[in-house]
Amino acid sequence: MNLERFVDGHLTEVTTDGSRVSLRLEAYVEYRLVPGEVSVVEVFELSADPAELEAAEPPSADHSLEEPWSWEHDGLVTVEFFAPLRIRVTAAAFELESLGVEPRPVPPSPYPDRCAFESADALGLATRLERDVVWRTYGGEAGTPTDPGGWFLQRRDRLASSLTGVFCRATAPVAFERHDADDELWRSVQLLGRHASRVSSGNCVFEPADWVTWVTTGVLPPVERLRR
């Protein structure tokens, strides 16, 4: 069974009815990333009766399928998806039915642990953090990088108990990624975005004031203000 069409698609539902197992799958016909634009998906039902289901938990509709695959053994076919945990169905035969196409408006999805600041200098931004926040290499002591790419920001009193912190790449734009950092430190790094010209996170591009509002309140601006 060729499941390649569902790469980057979604497994949204698994249902059972007696011995019958049904999977609701989505494959992109038109894929869009920008918030407010409209993607088009084709919806399928993959079913088998009788079938054996192995699933630790229900699928997450937001999880993108990476490498769905199938194989045959002893006259049975097994299909496997990670959505995000493994879901496996084994049966003698499967039926794949198209249920039609559906439009899907793209929601704004900023990352909770990554952001990038345009027109900003990493070393200059770091001087605005609390005095106890220092630069360090992976597992290293406090230092002063001439190029902060590949360095971390961490509290001085956590250097002995943590190997990382907030990772920084001195690229254009400057990028920050949370690893082992407390909530207060990560929030302080995020709020440095008020000194940038624009902030990118996930599929969103923020004006600095909108970014600060989202970080502090969780409220997003109108979708038209988040487009690249």
Number of domains: 2
Succession of helices and strands: EEEEEEEEEHEEEEEHEEH
Low-confidence parts lasting 5 or more residues at pLDDT below 50?
Answer: none
Sheet with most strands: 8 strands, antiparallel
| Strand order in the largest sheet | 11-10-12-13-14-9-15-16
DSSP helix fraction = 10-25%
Gross morphology: elongated
Structure description:
This protein has 228 residues and is mainly beta. It folds into 2 domains: 4-105, no CATH class; 114-218, no CATH class. The model has no long low-confidence stretch (mean pLDDT 95). 11% of the residues lie in helices and 41% in strands. The strands form 3 sheets. Strands 11-10-12-13-14-9-15-16 form an 8-stranded antiparallel sheet. A 4-stranded antiparallel sheet has the order 1-2-3-8, with no helix packed on it. The protein has helices at residues 122-126, 183-191, 208-217; strands at 10-17, 20-30, 38-48, 51-55, 69-73, 76-82, 86-91, 95-105, 114-117, 133-136, 142-143, 151-155, 166-169, 174-178, 199-201, 204-206.
Short description:
With 228 residues, the chain is mostly beta strands.
Which features characterize this protein?
mainly beta; 2 domains; eight-stranded antiparallel sheet
Task: Detail the topology: elements first, then pairings.
Blueprint (H helix, E strand, L loop, with lengths): L9 E8 L2 E11 L7 E11 L2 E5 L13 E5 L2 E7 L3 E6 L3 E11 L8 E4 L4 H5 L6 E4 L5 E2 L7 E5 L10 E4 L4 E5 L4 H9 L7 E3 L2 E3 L1 H10 L11
Antiparallel strand pairs: 1-2, 2-3, 3-8, 4-7, 5-6, 6-7, 9-14, 9-15, 10-11, 10-12, 12-13, 13-14, 15-16
